[in-house]
Amino acid sequence: xxxxxxAMLTVCAAIPQxxxxxxxxxxxxxxxxxxxxxxxxxxxxxxxxxxxxxTDLHRGYPLFSLATPSxxxxxxxxxxxxxxxxxxHVRNQYVYFAGQNYKLNTWHxxxxxxxxxxxxxxxxxxxxxxxWKLVSxxxxxxxxxxxxxxxxxxxxxxxxxxTESFAGMLSDVHMWDYTISPCEIQTYMEDLSFTPGNxxxxxALEFQIIGPALIEDKQKSCY
Length: 223
Ligand SMILES: *[C@@H]1O[C@H](CO)[C@@H](O)[C@H](O)[C@H]1NC(C)=O
Known about the structure:
By secondary structure, the protein is mainly β. The protein has one domain (2-217): Sandwich (Jelly Rolls), CATH 2.60.120.
């Protein structure tokens, strides 16, 4: 019976789901609740990650945590509340994007790009691009890759700390193995029709929910 249930859970996790119009809710600060996103990709030289988030957290928290066995912050987007900046970690090095005016209790659209060859990284928030920054030039992300939402990995798939957890909502998470163009980023930000991620695709998402986190409809305005 237990085996059957486990088998069913495994099958469920393996079927991609279209989460259009939905969001993940992390209603509690815990060191357990998280969503693990599945990709078969093992190596990345160019990266774009886009997502939408909503929170009222007054401390630092992760928005996207990608770890490999050797590097826990192989690609991490982390809100550094103390310094009012967004940090992008690539290959365990990081750059910061300051003065982004990240308001609480508001849906934000965020895209971050990085290209190995140039080492150039950029972060877009609500339609506005940041300065370009240089990080981990010439390096590449080498798997096996574990992607976690809701927690910050201090080890491959674990090492969660409650003070570095995310609470709030996340939606429209996409990841590409190339740097998408500024026009495509604008299209994403305006929630229009864009080419979905080819590494992580919200419209065909393979994932597992662990602990108190759930999927709900994203509220639309009434008119
Ligand atoms: C990464 O992007 C560069 C252009 O910025 C391109 O020349 C290169 O082929 C890409 N590498 C991979 C592995 O996609």
